[in-house]
Each structure stands twice: as structure tokens, then as C-alpha cells.
Amino acid sequence: MATTGFQGAIFDVDGVLVDSPHERAWRQALRELMEGEWADIRDRTTWSPEAFTSEVYQRVISGRPRMSGALGALEHFRVPDAAGRAKVYADRKQRLIVGFIEAGEFTAFPDAIRFVLAVRAAGIPMAVASSSKNADRFLKRIRVDTFAERERLGHDFVRPGMTLYDLFAADLSGRDLAHGKPDPEIFLVSAAELGVPPEHCFVVEDAVSGVRAAKAGGMAALAVARAGDRALLAAARADLVVTSLDEVDVAALAEHRLAARRA
Q1: How far apart are CA 6 and CA 1, in angstroms?
Q2: N or C: which terminal CB in the chain sees fewer CB atoms within 10 Å?
């Protein structure tokens, strides 16, 4: 284990490791409700298919626990009795996302798999800490043995049948905690389960709420701007913002630094 550098790495999943269909599921679930059993209240809301943009998803849903995300979206669109309707919306979204996962309708980011493998090779224990209860479903379906062979990475710890999930020492995804991001609780519990002081961990996030949670917990924040939101992530005080995890200088982690590779 690294001693002078970072001693723990904590990863969000959706948007960091996996290009998941969460946004699609949230959008489709609300559309089904508004065009079906909630059609009688649709004209009393600000919802329309066009109004549910990626920006709205990132701002009011991404990074939150399922019920919190459902309530946030319904309140954003001024849906009457949002609190009373949130569970119906969250349950509809969950049924859709499970179907998408089982159908294999998602992809892992190749740069993320390369980075996770490199961090593991550097001897830094890792945890996954997503608000989603579906995160492990994704990670257990992503084979890293075939990926490493295809990319000719040559990591000797990769064994036949290994999945992305197998590379992590702790899994906090979907844990029922008292507070969601931007509260740092999920990251502090992750650090504790890794047995590493928070100040010696770095967090990999793609959402502003996640970056704020990392900083609130006294951790370094590595932000990956996959949605063209570099400025927003930088404004949230991320220590390093990249558009691909291939840009990160892995050697600098041993010096307790988040830095971009030199061109």
C-alpha cells in the first residue's frame, strides 16, 4: 500500500465508470406517467418531454439517492403532491433500469477501466460509493479479464472471469445512510471501510454534488467532465478536472497529488 501518497481511492459509478441508462430511465419513467396515469395533472405541471434535459438531470437528480432524486425531479416540474407521488415515480424508474441492465443496454468507459486497473496496480485500495442501489449490477457484468487482454495491459493480478466489481475492496453503493450527497457521509464511511484516513483518499466523481461531498469530507476530488460541465465541476472546487481519466498522471498519486499527464 502507498504510504507517502494516496492510500485510498473512492469511485462514483454512474457517469464515472459506466455510461449507464439512469438518465434515460428517469426521463422515460416520467414520460410514461405523464402520458398515462398522471395525464389528468399534466397541464398543471411545467413538464414536457423537451423540458427534461440532461442539464435538469445533472442538477436535480444525478448523485442523489433514488427517492431524493424522484422528489427533486417532481418538485422541479411543479408536479402536484410531489412528495406523495415520488415513490410511484421512483419505483417506475427502478423497473426500467433493471430491464435496461438485464438487456445489457449500457457501456463501461474504457478510460475508467484503464484507470481503475492502474490504481489497483499502484497498490491503492479502492471503494465504490454510488447513491444508486443498482451500481453493483453494472460492475458485476463488466469483464476486466477480456478487456485487459484486448488492451494488452498485462496486469498480473487480473484473473480469468474477473469483473470490474472484483477490483474494489469495499462497496457502499446504495447503502441506506442518513444523508445523501453533497453530504460527505458516504465517502467518510467508504474511507473507514478501507481503513484509510479521509485526508489520504481521493474521490472520482462526475457530479457537482459528489465533488462537494468529497471536499466536505476533507478528501481530494478528481472530477471527470463527461457532460461538458468542466466549469461547473471546477467551480465546485475539484482539485483536478479532466474529460478522460486517461489524462490523469497515475505516478503523481504516489506523491499525494492529483495532476494531469504532460502532453
Answers
A1: 9
A2: C
